[in-house]
Amino acid sequence: MARFSANLGLLWRELALPDAIRAAARAGFDAVECHWPYDVEPQRVRDALADAGLSMLGLNTIRGKVEDGEAGLAALAGREADARAAIDQAIDYAIAIGAQNVHVMAGNAEGAAARQAFLSNLAYASARAAVHGITILIEPLNRRDWPGYFLSTTDQAAEIIGAVGAANLRLMFDCYHVQISEGDLTRRLQALMPIIGHIQIAGVPERGRPDRGEVNYRHIIDVLETLGYNWPIGAEYHPGGRTEDGLDWIAALR
User: Fold this and answer.
1) How many domains does the chain have?
2) Which residue of the set 139, 159, 214, 244 is catalytic?
3) Residue of 55, 105, 165, 237 with fewest CB within 10 Å of its CB?
């Protein structure tokens, strides 16, 4: 039976993170994940997770100077000190709340120098995280929503993971982004499963509820079951109103 994780970067955004965690538990989610929790004292998050009986699957490194359009730091040549400070911040927070994964955001960049910066920063992140049993994730983002983002395809991500060669560096396979950029979700999941660390879903093309749009997630979940994937699937979508008013998709996809 499929299990689902509520991405609290998009769901229950009107609530403080501890309250959103408790709301996700009441709604029947099996886990939670978030984007940038750093304004919340870690003990409050840890207490909420304990109260709710949920685990926090992961969080992101900071985007950087959002006002300047930055979307991550790890592939920005010359910004290695900033990138590693963001990595340290994310890993320290993950340790404090018991999170399993850290998504290292690449940022907007291109070219050989960007690739080298990304490889170096990922090697640093993977080594630091491995000591604590934490997985580092990288996620290709479609360039319709994220123009200029360095990491945009699963092939590029697989090559980078191979080049770094760290056992705890894995792919975050967001079906929404992959469908827009590449399509062929079934075959890509089959081919990439050995390096996948987390999977997310949302309706395409609007990033709405996963039971709407062009992707048949009932089929995708059946594929994942045949592949032996049994971790909670991240629900990272725009609810289009009150989150709790549109959760009947959970029973339908289970």
Assistant:
1) 1
2) 139
3) 165
Structural domain span for residue 45? 4-8+11-253
pTM for the whole structure: 0.97
Out of 14, 225, 236, 244, the active site residue is 236
Measure Cα distances from 84 to 15, 57, 69, 92, 128 in Å. Answer: 30, 21, 19, 12, 10
* Distance, CA of 198 to chain centre: 7
Residue 206 a catalytic site member: no
Angle at alpha carbon of residue 245, lines to 240 and 249, rounded to 5°: 85
Burial of residue 17 (CB within 10 Å: 0-12, 13-18, 19+) is: buried
What is the distance between the alpha carbons of residues 103 and 35, in angstroms, rounded to a whole number? 9
Question: Is 236 annotated in the active site?
Answer: yes
Please give the Cα distance from 91 to 81 (Å, whole number).
15
Strand order in the sheet with 135-138: 31-33, 4-7, 233-235, 196-201, 169-174, 135-138, 101-103, 58-60
> What is the CATH classification number for the domain harbouring 37?
3.20.20.150
